[in-house]
Amino acid sequence: MAVEVTPMLSPRLASAVHLTCPADLARLPLLPHDQWANWFRETGSTTSKLQFYADDYPTHELDAMAAVESAGVALLSPTLFASLLSEGRLVQPFSHVIRGPTSHYILLPVSQARAAARRFRDWLCEEARFGTSNRHAAAGQ
């Protein structure tokens, strides 16, 4: 399953700058992520210089919490952080989502392939397919 990320930020930080186009995000501190340049490029935005927040958090969960606290704009998974969006703790100002180049994998060694583990794997894969197809349908893609 391809990793998907999109910019998310706190409502308070979003209200600090009038966000009318993706390039406007470059006026805010960005939480470090190796896909920022790709996200801006895919949206057709030209940015002269990106301003990154000083800390580089080791997990997406820490990036999300920093974004909730208005430390900066994070590139996060709309699937994994849907609850923060629905609760209004984060906003997704633009609909563009990067898909890839990295992926999530589930590995299940044959020697440990118990029926319950296989059912969980099958359920997880189905949820991933269902979630992706629903997001694409909602976005009109």
Detailed description of the structure:
This protein is an alpha+beta fold and 141 residues long. The chain folds into 2 domains: 2-105, D-Maltodextrin-Binding Protein, domain 2; 106-141. It contains 5 helices and 3 strands. A 3-stranded antiparallel sheet has the order 2-1-3. The longest helix is centred in the C-terminal third of the chain and has 24 residues, at 115-138. The chain is elongated and about 55 Å long. The two termini are 18 Å apart. Mean pLDDT is 83; it is low at 135-141.
Following the backbone from N to C, one meets helices and strands in this order, namely: EHHHEHEH
- What level of helicity do the residues show? 25-40%
Provide the domain count: 2
Q: Let me know the largest β-sheet.
A: 3 strands, antiparallel
Strand residue percentage: 5-15%
- The CATH topology of the largest domain is given as D-Maltodextrin-Binding Protein, domain 2
> Which whole number gives the mean pLDDT?
83
Low-confidence stretches: 135-141
